[in-house]
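Working notes for the structural subgroup meeting. M.R. asked for a predicted model of this chain before we commit to crystallization trials. I am recording the input and output together here so anyone reviewing the notebook later can reproduce the run.

Input as submitted:
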Amino acid sequence: MFRNLPHTRTKLIPTHLLLAAQLLLAACASPVLTPAPELDIQLDSGPLIPAFDPAVHNYEATSLSSTKPVHIKVNSSKALSATLDGQPLPLNTTTRLNIDRLAVDRSLALNITFPDRTESYGIQTLPNNFPKYTAQIYNSTQLNPGYLYLTPHDWSGKNPAYLMVLDPDSQPVYYRQAALALGDFKRHTLADGSVRYSYFEMDANQALKNVNYQEGRIHILNQDMQPLDTLMLQAYHSSRYNEDYPVIAADSHDTLILGPDHYLLMAYYGKEVENIPADLLKSPGKVKVVAAVLQEIKNGEVVFQWDSTHYPEFYANAATYSQYDPAAADWYDYMHINSAEVDPKDQNLILSMRHQNQVIKINRQTGDIIWRLGGKNSDFALSADQQFAHQHDARLTPNGDLTLFDNSNPPTGTGANGVSNIKRFRLDEVSHSVTDFQQWAPIPGQYSFAMGSAAILSNGNLLFGWGANQSQQSDVTETDSAGNVLYDLHFPDQVYSYRAFKDKEF
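Returned structure, recorded in token form:
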């Protein structure tokens, strides 16, 4: 209804303009219906590369598997029919792919028929930049059967990072690629028999400059490799230390899945501290350090958190620093945590600290340190061969022995004459003594200055993940219990996998 405004003259609006206005208002008030696309092709494993464009006919995939379910959907409002590898493919319907193999020369062939034409598209099942590798089996009868989980990363920056799974014949059965680093890819079998997979994906921004670490988020997948959760450390208030922590990006080194919706994450967290002993300070003042932080999350709640800066004795034990300067621009990475393990006999935590040259055990309720193995203040007396330096992947075997990958970095590395190796310790935790010890260094001169993994497999074989190795003789080696090489895998120079994980299943 229109009315006169004060001091104005009434002006009649023509009927056709009123009708047009009413139609316009009705259109604005109605929901906008998005028409179905003329053509779109989607995979539930991730975007096509490049992003789908009807004018582009050849693609690669972000992720594919020849053994896990991957689904395709061809959306079209105008197509009449479609075929995939010569077989009918329903339109506008999610359909499971049947991929016989992943290979550069194997493409999924899509033909989509419209009233006036047929369009053909190809999705290559293995990208052109998939990491090259050579694998040599020396004794197949003695190999521990299983699948290799690897995270090859091209340090030259020329190619994307990858997750990859190789079958017992060293053929790829799964991959995922990403622009930035991927890591810590492994399979978890939970106590109830359910299966989870996890991997780390790096974020673009690094909070701590000039610190050799990666921060991002942890992806949790179900048994079909479908996403379940994405994790970082949660904001937390420590009542014991009256300290507030923000949300912290997860670190790449290790993740434990302790049960459904039950995780142990780690982080590198920059703090300015005032509890460094005075004899270690170049001058008085706050010092920027990288704290090793662990957080246990169960059903969405933080149930335990541990922060290395609450234990000032670690400052003096650092292998890489003897003095701390408050004026330093860079952060002191004095701990460099790189693995965590739950001891099943008491549920406490065993942690590897690279820059301490030390493996420690802490109480999972109080955080108190139970014992230290290695480093300047070891609770266990170690012989020269038992010493280790810049180690990785401290794990427990089923019988309770402790294994680790000893990088043996100079100048402190003395194990196996400075050659990287696997060490096994049997510890008496009451008397703080080593009751049994072995080490294996199967490749003369093989030295890994960073990364690496160690595993004693179910049949007694040893699996070496050589990480960032300088000699370039091998990236993954499997040996028998005597150290005789049974299997070897090698990437090109500058391509490294942080660790190698082997499981009987995928």
